[in-house]
Amino acid sequence: MAKNAVHPGMKIRRSVGDHVFNICNILFFILISIIILFPFFNIFAISLTSNVEYMREPFIIWPKEPTLESYAYIFSTSLIPRSYVLTILITISATLLSTLVTSMLAYGLCRGDLRGQKFFMIYLLITMFFSGGLIPNYMNITKTLGWSNNLLALIVPNSVSVFNFIIVRSFFRQLPASLEESARIDGANEWTILFRIIYPLSIPTLATIAMFVAVGTWNSWFAAMLYMRDEKLFPLQLIVRNFVVHEARPADMQNMEGLRDAAGNRIFLNETGLKMACAVATVLPMVIIYPFIQKYFEKGMTIGAVKG
Amino acid sequence: MQASPHRNASTTENRHPLHVIQALLIAGVCMLAGGGIWYLAITGIIGRKKWDFMLYGLKPAILAGCGALLIIGTVLAFFLLPGLKNWSRPVARDLWKDRYRYSLIIPGLIIVFVFSYMPMYGIVLGFKDYKIKSGIIFSEWVGMYNFGRFFKSPVAGQVIWNTFFIGITQLIITFPVPILLALLMNELRSTGYRRTIQTIIYLPHFISWVIMYSLLFSLFSITSGLVNKLLMSMGYQTINLLSDPNKFYGMLYLTSIWKEAGWGTIIYMAAIAGVDQEMYEAAYLDGANRFQQCLHITLPSIAFSITTMLILNVGSIMGANFDQIMNLRTAATQTTVAQVIDTYVYDMGVGKGQYDLSTAIGLFQQIVNCILLFVSNFVVKKMSGEGFF
Q1: Spatial distance between the Cα atoms of A111 and B30, rounded to a whole number of angstroms
Q2: A246: closest chain B residue by CA
Q3: What's the pTM value of the predicted model, to 2 decimals?
Q4: Which of residues 354-373 of B touch A (CB under 8 A)?
């Protein structure tokens, strides 16, 4: 009764068809939820399955003897833990840089009275329609800047997003100009105003674009595939991609002969389980923080759709 | 520029000096650009790394140098000559007043320049025969040769067809799903339940296509996928979803719907939330049932959002699914049904090192994309009086 609330005093007749529809609708969405959640459950289940059980059972919904050996192995290699730290560092620095630069740009251009304003806006908007393309970008970063195997190539290039710029700018424009005026009379310059007055007022909006950037960076693999040659510098997504999509086990995981259990017997690990353990490790942070950041995303999407 | 010096200058004064200044600046920019283009052109015509700079390169260099000097000189003269103070003073005052704001936008402008504008120079590769030892600048001009090479090659037709076919069919098939979902979701009576459903159906948007492939692999891998194991244990034929060329498009549509349909409802849910509740009450009093209310109130009120989203999507049918195809294609599909322009550019360029050819193909795609985008924006503008850019 939340949405189509009729006047409280009015009695609503519910037909049988109405009830049937409601029940079908609820069941339909339960079905959809299962379709969406089951694959996640499934990769988690596989990652917990031992090789013996995986080979023996015709199919497994949930392992009878869940084991963490796949996780123990991938975290015992140096590759995955290092890549984890690396991916987190890349995500954090890309997010900070992008949010900072984009919001500074948006604030500088939020009132339409800067000399050259129109030029700067066109200068930024052109990049939405036209770019060098894959190869010119690739050559710019590898040849001109020489950033092969340099983590900067994963952090800096996309740090100014015109889409985010528009979101932040339209928010800044709604703030009353009197705020800035009074601060300016008190002798504050634009940097002080931005950091002391504007930022505290725009935390939800900044969080929105920060989340966009963070999720995008966490999920990106293509830039790393182009610019990183050294497996030590691969972010998690690229490792999972090589491992699962290309079925190429990371160099660091080649040597599994030395694995022994407590009794000295050789352990055979579940290959699919290893892959899925990597995938779970990659997707887990996202799934955990996702409920907390969801509202920012909805907000960003709505602003972007109205103003974008 | 709206804030031209004219506005602040007193109107009775003679305006000639400003016109001269403007003309000088334009001339300077033209000379600079002309020198650059000349230099670039001549290096490509000579086409070798060791060349006689004094013979070929000096003249364009001098031209560009003069242009730069002219610009600097004009700017200095404008601000320093006592006779021009009347015009330059307001400009200088504004620049000085806004110095902190300029310093705020400079980092962003530099990043955009380095990562968006500098690569544009590389587009000349599309018109050159690229040799690694010569570099971009000294490789020979070949005109439209690379474009011809692409369009004459047997794969071109298929690649272009695939791109449009996938783009258009994917749009047609996936586009209505979020609308239906939003309409049905709107009929859920309990707010708490609806919030939970929203949280769940937005989730797939937040995972990468790499993970998406992992999920598919865990279900549909021929040897170890759960669905196939289940089918096998029940004695049925297994489904080769991942690498059967005939099922590739179906997989694209289904994964797009699975991953993005829920997320796509956000816009429509926001539009539905803005519908005036009294309309439903009035409709109810007039005896409209829920289906009629949905058809005659909810749907028309989100019609604008629907058209807008449709047009926006049309603008990007050519290259919206690079990430998806890169991760879902396999050895069996990647040279046939799954080869679109984007992936072809990647395969030829990064894979085979044919930088010139793939730059040309990329340029072709960008131009088509641009046209689509401008046409769709034009339609939106006509429709709503307000474009997106």
Answers
A1: 31
A2: B330
A3: 0.88
A4: 355, 358-359, 362-363, 365-366, 369-370, 373
